[in-house]
């Protein structure tokens, strides 16, 4: 399994109830993925991922409650607090037409509509809305709202994402660079 590409789909926040459910901060688009796959992998810091069958899941507030085979009771659920909820990349269904997975965007070159290079996608912030952390060639961080209207093109084969930032957004991050340069 060392060559397996893992995809983070959530994090165990806390146990919930007495039977062994836990509350998961869920990062994938839809929890219906859990029905399709039928299992998840849990991994604690630096630990080897362990596979669990899904007994049941349900939405609860802004989280997903997950009940897994082999986790029977609150104490066992508490043992997994802070664990990563993972899937193997090969277990994911193909994205919908025109869709991409976030892990496919990491490391892509970000271009502006005029073709100039802004930087590289280095991270994601998923709450309260999806933001891409773009690191410029000068090492500055730009937080960019990832909404379809502002992302006219994603070309995975070319390794590029073209963005159309609203007027003034980049000035918030890059004005200091221009003033210093």
From TrEMBL:
UniProt keyword Transcription, yes or no: no
Gene3D superfamilies: PRC-barrel domain, RimM
Main location group: cytoplasm
Domain called RimM N-terminal: residue spans: 9-90
Record-level Gene Ontology MF annotations: ribosome binding
GO biological process: ribosomal small subunit biogenesis; rRNA processing
Domain of life the protein comes from: Bacteria
Subcellular location: Cytoplasm
Domain Ribosome maturation factor RimM PRC barrel: 103-169
GO cellular component: cytoplasm; ribosome
Pfam families per the UniProt record, alphabetical: PRC_RimM (PF24986), RimM (PF01782)
Keyword tRNA processing: no
Keywords: Chaperone, Cytoplasm, Ribosome biogenesis, rRNA processing
Residue stretches spanning the membrane: none
Function recorded in the entry: An accessory protein needed during the final step in the assembly of 30S ribosomal subunit, possibly for assembly of the head region. Essential for efficient processing of 16S rRNA. May be needed both before and after RbfA during the maturation of 16S rRNA. It has affinity for free ribosomal 30S subunits but not for 70S ribosomes.
PANTHER family per the UniProt record, alphabetical: RIBOSOME MATURATION FACTOR RIMM
Family statement: Belongs to the RimM family.
Domains (record comment): The PRC barrel domain binds ribosomal protein uS19.
Quaternary context: Binds ribosomal protein uS19.
Protein known as: Ribosome maturation factor RimM
Organism expressing this protein natively: Desulfocurvibacter africanus subsp. africanus str. Walvis Bay
């Amino acid at each position: 399994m060392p060559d397996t590409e893992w995809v983070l789909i959530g994090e165990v926040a806390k146990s919930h109830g007495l039977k062994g459910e836990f509350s998961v901060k869920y990062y994938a688009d839809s929890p219906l993925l859990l029905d399709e796959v039928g299992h998840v992998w849990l991994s604690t810091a630096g630990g080897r991922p362990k596979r669990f069958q899904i007994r049941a899941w349900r939405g609860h507030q802004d989280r997903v409650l997950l009940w897994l085979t082999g986790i029977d009771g609150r104490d066992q659920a508490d043992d997994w607090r802070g664990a990563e909820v993972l899937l193997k990349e090969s277990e994911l269904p193909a994205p919908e037409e025109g869709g991409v997975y976030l892990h496919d965007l990491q490391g892509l070159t970000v271009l502006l509509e005029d073709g100039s290079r802004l930087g590289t996608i280095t991270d994601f912030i998923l709450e309260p809305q999806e933001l891409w952390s773009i690191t410029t060639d000068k090492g500055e961080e730009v937080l960019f709202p990832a909404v379809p209207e502002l992302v006219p093109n994603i070309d995975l084969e070319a390794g590029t994402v073209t963005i159309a930032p609203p007027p003034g957004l980049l000035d918030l991050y890059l004005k200091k660079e221009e003033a210093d340069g």
